[in-house]
Design a protein that fits this description.
By secondary structure, the protein is α/β, with parallel strands linked by helices. 36% of the residues lie in helices and 9% in strands. Strands 1, 2, 3, 6, 7 and 8 form a 6-stranded parallel sheet that branches. Strands 4-5 form a two-stranded parallel sheet. It binds zinc ion (ZN).
Length: 368
């Protein structure tokens, strides 16, 4: 462990000074919160290749609502500094997100898609990653907001639960964008899934993906006073077949910009099974948690009434069995599928954004 740690520290040392200056000034408040976090025990016990399964296949929205690959990137909204006396956010909300290129990046060193979208960066270093606490479950809802977002938040509130919403603006969903603020105020994590969720468009090129991502990033920031999380979820999952051709470039580029993707290690199957009764969804989620899953895939489109109906039973079961349902923090150890470990972990080490946890270094010693 010693040699690996030393090598690792030397590598980090090259950027430490720059990071220290920018981090202290720019994000002292958020960074402080993370560094005060306890060192957490427990680990993902059941990381499987669940990401092979598409998360959902919504019907294709009309082309008129699609951002074209050549559409100009919307500029990020002006982000207010985190005010100590701000009435929101609740403690579990992430720190204000980015919107500007970090000081450690020399714009002149960038070319191609890396030089595009100069405001599409997460804010500052995230601090040391931590493992998921044992007994904590992260319920993740894809594809909202929708008419079922407010009812879902009510159920979560009834059980004192938080969740993570990977959000979209699919066809006809514009009217539900204000629901994002309700998610934010409830204390759950608001994060990007996709603007269009149309595989052919978003995975046509890295640039096309960045165009789409920025549109949703800006929308969420606008609804949350700049608190869109840096965590995100690829439509279809990180190893979805549609992103195969650009996958490595895309995964690396998003990490370079400070955004961390999360797949899932437990599937409610509320999108992948045709007969997704609330009883089946309940059983799938409970079984997954009993098997050690901590990041659960669910959906929150207007069609997912069965998912909503299953939630009280799921949350009640969790309560009775000692589980905590939490919003995903921004420094949660990412868990990558084996095929991406060799790509992702070195990519994380190249940017001051991330400091892999000690547990991660022990788990994947070959990369440190
Ligand atoms: Zn989706």
């Amino acid at each position: 462990m010693g040699n690996r740690t030393n090598r690792y520290r030397r590598a980090r040392g090259r950027t430490a000074l720059t990071v220290a200056v920018t981090a202290v000034v720019v994000c002292a408040l958020s960074f402080g919160a993370y560094t005060l976090a306890p060192r957490l025990l427990g680990h993902f016990q059941n990381v499987v290749d669940a990401g092979n399964q598409p998360d959902s296949a919504p019907s294709a929205p009309p082309a008129s609502s699609m951002p074209g690959p050549s559409a100009p990137a919307a500029s990020a909204p002006a982000l207010s500094a985190p005010a100590v006396s701000a009435p929101v956010p609740p403690a579990s909300n992430p720190a204000p997100s980015g919107g500007a290129m970090p000081a450690w990046i020399d714009p002149a060193s960038l070319s191609g898609y890396a030089a595009s979208h100069p405001s599409l960066y997460a804010k500052g270093p995230v601090g040391d990653f931590v493992e998921a606490p044992k007994g904590t479950v992260y319920l993740t809802f894809d594809d909202g907001p929708s008419a079922l977002t407010a009812p879902l938040l009510q159920v979560l509130d009834q059980y004192g639960a938080k969740a993570t919403f990977f959000l979209c603006d699919q066809s006809g969903m514009d009217g539900y964008m204000p629901e994002i603020r309700k998610i934010y105020e409830q204390g759950s994590t608001c994060a990007v899934h996709s603007y269009s969720h149309e595989y052919k468009k978003i995975y046509a090129s890295v640039d096309a993906f960045l165009d789409d991502f920025q549109k949703m990033y800006d929308k969420i920031n606008a609804e949350t006073d700049g608190h869109c999380a840096r965590v995100f979820r690829f439509p279809g999952g990180s190893n979805a077949t549609p992103n195969e051709k650009i996958r490595e470039d895309l995964l690396t580029e998003m990490l370079r910009r400070g955004f961390v993707y999360y797949d899932w290690d437990g599937d409610s199957r509320d999108a992948s099974d045709a007969a997704n009764s609330s009883a089946a969804i309940y059983q799938n989620v409970v079984s997954a948690i009993q098997n050690g899953s901590q990041v659960i895939l669910l959906h929150n489109t207007g069609a997912k009434q069965a998912t909503l109906d299953a939630m009280p039973k799921i949350l009640q079961w969790g309560k009775e069995n000692g589980y905590t349902f939490a919003a995903m923090p921004e420094n949660l150890d990412p868990f990558y599928y084996s095929f991406t470990n060799k790509l992702m972990i070195p990519a994380m080490q190249k940017t001051p954004y991330f400091t892999p946890s000690e547990a991660m270094q022990k788990k994947y010693p070959q990369y440190f």
